[in-house]
Amino acid sequence: ISIHPLCFALELAPLSSLNTVLSENARDSSFIPLGHMLTQKIAYQIASGLAYLHKKNIIFCDLKSDNILVWSLDVKEHINIKLSDYGISRQSFHEGALGVEGTPGYQAPEIRPRIVYDEKVDMFSYGMVLYELLSGQRPALGHHQLQIAKKLSKGIRPVLGQPEEVQFRRLQALMMECWDTKPEKRPLALSVVSQMKDPTFATFMYELCCGKQTAFFSSQGQEYTVVFWDGKEESRNYTVVNTEKGLMEVQRMCCPGMKVSCQLQVQRSLWTATEDQKIYIYTLKGMCPLNTPQQALDTPAVVTCFLAVPVIKKNSYLVLAGLADGLVAVFPVVRGTPKDSCSYLCSHTANRSKFSIADEDARQNPYPVKAMEVVNSGSEVWYSNGPGLLVIDCASLEICRRLEPYMAPSMVTSVVCSSEGRGEEVVWCLDDKANSLVMYHSTTYQLCARYFCGVPSPLRDMFPVRPLDTEPPAASHTANPKVPEGDSIADVSIMYSEELGTQILIHQESLTDYCSMSSYSSSPPRQAARSPSSLPSSPASSSSVPFSTDCEDSDMLHMPGAASDRSEHDLTPMDGETFSQHLQAVKILAVRDLIWVPRRGGDVIVIGLEKDSEAQRGRVIAVLKARELTPHGIMPVSSVKVCWAGWPVRDMVYMAAVM
Fold first, then answer.
1. Total domain count for the chain?
2. What are the distances in angstroms from CA 625 to CA 82, 270, 446, 600, 602?
3. Please, which residues bridge with residue 425 across strands?
4. Which CATH number belongs to the domain containing residue 159 in this structure?
5. Do the beta carbons of residue 81 and residue 52 sit within 8 Å?
6. Where is the Protein kinase domain (predicted)?
7. Distance separating alpha carbons of residues 86 and 97, to the nearest angstrom
8. Is 283 in the same domain as 183?
């Protein structure tokens, strides 16, 4: 501020106003022109600014995109926008404020001559700014102020689109809540800030009701097609959903036949297995309709899972079919057509002859193949065999190794391959009894980490990751799993019995602690190096809040992961069993360098690997919960779906709940 001459020296916004930025970027996108993450951060920073003003009893009175100045469009920057132009802002007292200033279209309907209003008028304007962020357009309702005011007072609002089209459900719902005609129904800026700290706010795209379905199968790779099946025999039908567009492309198309047990889409072919021990191969023509199959194959047991394995030859690949009796059928495919020859890999024979497991051993039970995964750059396939994992050498098509992540009667239910912080390939697996996640280093076959997924409030849980051995161990043919030494992740025994259920015993030098199913980690978070672009974390990180809101005491209003539910000890015996079922993990999904673990209760645990100067560790960095699905109760394994896109441009995880 200068007196001689009288002037203000203000900071220059390098990118002009938000309205200008939206106008420049809206040409290439029908919705969310700035992308999910940047839109989320800008909306959060605007709400933080309003919360600060309202804390100081100041009503902005003229919030619009022209008065929001843009500093950066980089998602990683701490400050992206700042609020400006407080020329008509008013001091608010307990009685409220008077005045009719504001911009038509952004002005709340209760702003009229001689009418008292409060800070909720800013929240109405905030809803209109959210409309601009979602649509890229101004909230146009007419050209004359009186005409616009009448429309707003009657509840007429700008048209945006259905949630599955916009694909930012929480922000769209917040927009509609903010521009409610009744001020008392609009949220406070402080509560909006609290809502947006939940990582689910940005990642939950939409909810699409598909009616009753009995099975679904998603495509491998980066495709966005999900196929649902329902019924059997003459009433069998299928539904095709495009998760990228939020659109049902085919709805209940009739396709008579036996009940489908699993499915695989590879190139232009669709492999479907049915409960009458047959495989039908269809040539795809837009997924509609599935008429006469190109080929029908018989199998000695019901197919429980498929896996496509690419080979060096052009237009050639292998299709592996895991069977309910533990066999793995191998089908060579050339130009979409299976060869006449088919070979089988027998888990029982390999366990007895190569790994010296006696027939009476529980690991020799005829376990169905639940999961298969391509590992080590396509040179191996790891598949489940009861509590263990068997490794297939793709060159020789022989079973070459057995790993023991669990003990009977646990069964491996899910296997995925991903990379850790240093680029090394790791394999994660999950079981159905101990409810624990196990991580192997794929090259050395070393068990590196174990994490119990049945924690009621897992946010910020940590678990150690064992350093890699310098040399890979020799091929192990021992029948019994080894118990690692020391105070590492292996000093945990997981026992299961029909009477007591799952018990976790932590062994120490002179003490054994019992960990109930409701135990949780209370370790404080530690700072560690990790990729910020890969974490679907809260926008309210330590350095991302652009304004000092003086509202730190409000953070407990809606902290994600806060233990607000009853503990298991407060439940009745029947409730306790249901409670444990809610916490059962059902699948593992690899999303870039993160692991997503959906649970039966409907939440998703997001795990990342961190490394500091001391050691590497795993941490639960977020818990995603779609509260919109809570009324539907427990979601069985066949109904849990988390769809994701590999963050191609916007550095954003997309999560859709498909029911």
1. 2
2. 31, 33, 33, 11, 7
3. 419
4. 1.10.510.10
5. no
6. 1-201
7. 15
8. no
Instruction: For the sheet with 603-611, list strands across it.
Output: 462-465, 616-625, 603-611, 594-598, 589-591
**Residue 145 belongs to a domain:** yes
Kindly state the helix (H) or strand (E) to which residue 120 belongs, with its residue range. Answer: helix 120-135
Over residues 587-602, the pLDDT tens digits come to 999 988 899 999 998 8
Contact 567, 579 (CB under 8 A): no
- Assign 644 a pLDDT band (cuts: 50, 70, 90): very low
Torsion of CA 503, 508, 512, 513, to 10 degrees: -60
- The sheet with strand 380-385 has its strands ordered as 372-375, 380-385, 388-393, 398-403
Q: What is the mean pLDDT of residues 197-220?
A: 83
Answer yes or no: is 34 within a domain: yes
Name every residue whose Cβ is closer than 8 Å to that of residue 564 and which is 6 or more positions away in sequence. none
Chain segment 247-265, per-residue pLDDT in tens? 888 889 999 999 999 999 8
- Which structural domain range is residue 24 located in? 18-196
Tokens of 212: 């009753």
Strands 412-419 and 425-431: antiparallel
Give me the active site residues, please. Answer: 62
Nearest partner of 213 among 223, 222, 225, 226, judged by Cα = 226
The reply to whether 82 falls in a domain is: yes
Query: What CATH number corresponds to the domain at position 285?
Result: 2.40.10.480
For residue 550, is it within any domain? no
390 and 382 in contact (C-beta within 8 Å)?
A: yes
Last residue of a domain, one of 174, 196, 218: 196
